[in-house]
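Checklist before submission:
- one chain only
- standard amino acids only
- sequence pasted in full

Submission:
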Amino acid sequence: MALPVLIAPSILSADMKRLPEEIKSIEPFADWLQIDVMDGRFVPNTAFPLTQVQTIRTTLPLDIHLMVEQPAEYAREFLSLHPRNITFHAEAVRKTDDRRALLQAIRKGGATDTVGHVRRVTAGIAINPPTPLSDIADVLGEVDLLLVMSVNPGFGGQAFIPSVLEKVIEARRKHPALMIQMDGGIDASTAPLCIRAGANNLVSGNFIFRAADRAKAIASLRSSV
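Returned file contents:
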C-alpha cells in the first residue's frame, strides 16, 4: 500500500518582499511549510533567524530544517513556535548519545503549548548527499523523519543528485512506515523518482514558487508516480 505523499514548499525560494502573499498562495494546496534555518557556518549561507520566523502567519504546520552547527541551541528556540517537525543534521551531531538526547528534547519540548494544548513535535535527522545511510544506523530506527538531501545544502535552485535515491530505497526497505523526506531539485521530473524510491514527503522551492499556477505545480508533485 502506497504511503500518502506530503508536499512542503520551502520559503527559501519565495519572494521575501511579498512573503505573506507568497505563503497564502500555497496554503490551500500544501501540507507543511518548510523553514530553512542556516547559520553561515554549517552551510555557506544564512537564513531565517527566529525573530524573522516569529513574524510568519500561516495555517500550515511548520517544518524547521536546522542547517546549523549547534542544533540543540536552535531547537530550543524554535520549539517556542510549536512547529510540526524539527530536523537536525547528522553531520552536526556525531555522537549517538547526543543524537538521542536531541531527538528526545525536540519531542519533549513540543508536549504542550502556552495554553496547555498538546502539540506533538516530531524529530527528524538529515543526511547530506555524501553521507551514507550507515552513518545514522545508531538512531534511524528511533527518528520520526529521515531527510535525505538531494543537493548539497545551503542554496536553492541546485540540480538533483540521482545517486541519493539508493539511500531512500534502502531506508524504505528497512523501515516501511518511516516518514522519508527529500529536499533539493524536486520538480515534476524528479518527484516520480523520489516517490518510486520510497519518499513520502517532498520539499520543493523553485518549482513551486516560480510556477504561474502553484496549485497545479503542487498537485503535479503529489501525484507524479
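Reviewer check: The first strand starts at residue 6 and ends at 9.
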